[in-house]
Amino acid sequence: MRILVVCGAGASSTFVAQRVRAAAEHQGLSYTAFAGTASSLATDIDAADVILVGPHLSHALARIEADAARRGTAVVLLPSDIFTDREGTRTLALVQEALASRFDHLARQEQD
């Protein structure tokens, strides 16, 4: 599972990526997480299964979701207090919820 964390300049996304990667490792999950910026998203999106969007990029969420939908990539807008998640466990839970929703959606599409 590849998680892209996107923020404006890449600094805060680096911290979130490190924390969620550590939380996944602690739970025995083979997830990778990497940081990106709003300007690198067009390139980075193809390498991601889940995109975590920094709260300060909420204005770009619709565009990111549209780009991600064409690729089957899940998108999560991170809450404004996500940077207090020092262990990364809350962020990891958001990733897992997004993946569960994505798989449920795909399963419903196959049934129709």
Automatic annotation (TrEMBL):
<keyword id="KW-0813">Transport</keyword>
<keyword id="KW-0808">Transferase</keyword>
<dbReference type="InterPro" id="IPR003501">
    <property type="entry name" value="PTS_EIIB_2/3"/>
</dbReference>
<dbReference type="InterPro" id="IPR036095">
    <property type="entry name" value="PTS_EIIB-like_sf"/>
</dbReference>
<feature type="modified residue" description="Phosphocysteine; by EIIA">
    <location>
        <position position="7"/>
    </location>
</feature>
<keyword id="KW-0762">Sugar transport</keyword>
<dbReference type="InterPro" id="IPR013012">
    <property type="entry name" value="PTS_EIIB_3"/>
</dbReference>
<keyword id="KW-0598">Phosphotransferase system</keyword>
<feature type="domain" description="PTS EIIB type-3">
    <location>
        <begin position="1"/>
        <end position="105"/>
    </location>
</feature>
<dbReference type="InterPro" id="IPR051819">
    <property type="entry name" value="PTS_sugar-specific_EIIB"/>
</dbReference>
<protein>
    <submittedName>
        <fullName>PTS lactose transporter subunit IIB</fullName>
    </submittedName>
</protein>
<dbReference type="Pfam" id="PF02302">
    <property type="entry name" value="PTS_IIB"/>
</dbReference>
<keyword id="KW-0597">Phosphoprotein</keyword>
<keyword id="KW-0418">Kinase</keyword>
